[in-house]
Design goal:
11-stranded parallel sheet, 3-stranded parallel sheet, 22 strands, elongated
Length: 329
């Protein structure tokens, strides 16, 4: 009660760590006067009840939390991010996790996107995955973006988006389970991704992607790793025409590749791949169209001729052996 009567920015302080777990004291955040140059090692807020953050969410003016190195917001505390002034921040690790839809309702109902500053590593889990659609990331450079969504409901708010949203320049992406579908809603056409990893342990995880009529573009990708049922996503994916991949890896059991095997030979275009970078099951290669290039980007003719005309080569080999045998007789 006394905290509520305090004026915003009325408590001067210097902090190294702030850890508030399921207590009404979270509301004190907006009352603190933290200098913009202050360095906070970690800020950790957990709120399982909406009442714990109600006072903060009433604030109209954003409050400063200084330069936070590691930020972890869980459950209703996720909504507090919309009230922080983070424009000039540089966050090393940024974690948001919300196990219930109500935890992110305050964020998702916002029309205007909020800024999270410069984030090096971003990790969003469960319903917090949807928060990415409300972030202003256009000019950001993110080292790694991890999205994890074990349930379909976790990404529902994202998949209903009609207009693609921008995630800035992301170096590494790792999407797991239903979060794989989020990639179809991202604006990645002009992006250059160092590593793209998609992992779906169940066929249902990629159903939303495969149901799409139009393919989605992932821009330029240097290394692509598709695991389990996520391998089928390449049937709906287009890659920038001027792209060379260092590695292209498909990993999964036989069931995971059924969708690809139904496609026509050489119907899936992968563009250029470095020598030794193609690691897919042998029976899948004939469904792919690609060019093997060396370190300088020059086509490795011998390898491509063999790969593209493997069936013909076997026929020629058979005829040579047969003809030699006839001569010997």
């Amino acid at each position: 009660e006394n905290i509520e009567r305090m004026a915003p920015n009325s408590i001067g302080c210097s902090l190294k760590k702030l850890d508030l777990n399921d207590i009404g004291l979270i509301s004190i955040l907006s009352k603190l006067r933290i200098h913009g140059d202050s360095e906070i090692e970690s800020l950790r807020l957990i709120a399982s009840e909406e009442a714990h953050v109600a006072e903060v969410l009433k604030q109209e003016k954003p409050f400063c939390v200084g330069r936070v190195k590691n930020m972890w917001l869980k459950e209703y505390a996720v909504g507090v991010i919309t009230k922080m002034s983070l424009k000039d921040s540089e966050i090393e690790w940024f974690y948001l996790t919300a196990s219930e839809e109500a935890h992110v309702a305050e964020v998702l109902k916002q029309e205007k996107p909020f800024c999270v500053g410069r984030v090096k590593n971003m990790w969003l889990k469960e319903y917090a995955v949807g928060v990415i659609t409300k972030m202003s990331l256009k000019d950001c450079e993110v080292e790694s973006l991890d999205l994890v969504a074990p349930r379909k409901e976790h990404v529902a708010a994202v998949l209903v988006q009609e207009k693609p949203f921008c995630v800035g320049r992301v170096k590494m992406m790792y999407f797991k389970d239903y979060a794989v579908g989020v990639i179809t809603k991202m604006s990645l056409k002009d992006c250059e991704i160092e590593s793209l990893s998609l992992d779906a342990s169940e066929e249902a995880h990629v159903a939303a992607v495969l149901a799409q009529e139009n393919p989605f573009c992932v821009g330029r990708v240097k290394n692509m790793f598709l695991n389990h049922y996520a391998v089928s996503v390449i049937t709906k994916m287009t890659i920038h025409e001027d792209n060379t991949m260092e590695d292209f890896v498909l990993f999964g059991n036989e069931d995971c590749f059924s969708r690809i095997l139904k496609k026509g030979d050489k119907s899936i275009d992968l563009g250029r791949i470095r020598t030794g970078g193609l690691r897919v099951p042998e029976e899948i290669k004939r469904k792919l169209r690609y060019t093997i290039v060396d370190g300088e980007g020059k086509e490795v003719l011998g390898e491509n001729i063999f790969l593209r005309n493997k069936a013909a080569m076997f026929v020629v080999l058979f005829l040579v052996i047969h003809f030699s045998y006839c001569l010997w007789l």
